[in-house]
Amino acid sequence: MGAPGFDYTGCGNSDGKFAECTVGKWRKDVLSILDELTDGPQILVGSSMGGWLMLHAAIARPNKIAALVGVAVAADHLVTTFKRLPIETQKEIEEKGEWKFPTKHNEEGYYPLTYNFIREAENHCVLNSPIPITCPIRLIHGMKDGDVPWQISMQVADRVLSKDVDVILRKIGQHQMSEKEDTKLLVNTVDDLIDNLSTLT
User: Fold this and answer.
1) pLDDT one-digit tens code per residue, 57-104
2) Is 124 among the residues known to form the active site?
3) Domain carrying residue 47
4) Suppose 89 and one of 34, 85, 146, 177 were both cysteines; which one would form an S-S bond, judging by CB atoms 3.0 to 4.6 Å apart?
């Protein structure tokens, strides 16, 4: 179980321009991978924005998903962050058509997001109502995450309909969760899920 990792359109090694992408387009990327390249139920592992998209995949293709593992899940995060900006700043971004979303993960120090990207992303928010996902879910989040608050993982756990949900908080974990112990935890979490699912079939 578990499809290989991939980069969304306009990200990493994939073709396309980041500036022309939307959450909806990336959601289609995930669904096309599931539909065309996988056979049988999958365990999806999604980090940050990938965690948000992982939830959408599970909502759209319940029969294709055996379980979910989220790492620093950024559900609704861009939209929530935008809406917390002062109204004047929001209007300024709307007029300019661009939002320089701060990040420590590239040289520029920001991701250039269009105003249209934010508006389109609003259509894909999941935390405003119960999330119709019933498979096992494991959510791992670092409490020292400076990009995506760990409380989002708690909100996801609260909103999903599944009863089989564990949230694992790493007290000194950062956003990338790239320390040796973090990686070990992720691998062990996936292995445990595979063992549990194997005993059910």
Assistant:
1) 999 999 999 999 999 999 999 999 999 999 999 999 999 999 988 887
2) no
3) 18-77+126-200
4) 85
Residue 142, in any domain of the structure: yes
Per the residue annotation, which of 47, 56, 124, 145 is the catalytic one? 145
Mean pLDDT of the chain: 89
Q: Which residues pair with 160 in a beta bridge?
A: 131
Domain tally for the chain?
A: 1
- Catalytic-residue membership of 47: no
Concerning whether 175 is annotated as a catalytic residue, the answer is yes
Q: What is the DSSP code string of 41-78?
A: -EEEEEETHHHHHHHHHHHH-GGGEEEEEEES--TTHH
Please say if the pLDDT value at position 137 is more than 80: yes
**pLDDT digits over 44-58, tens only?**
999 999 999 999 999
Contacts of 146 (CB under 8 A, 6+ apart): 104, 174, 175
CATH of residue 43's domain is 3.40.50.1820
Q: Which of 48, 76, 153, 182 is an active site residue?
A: 48
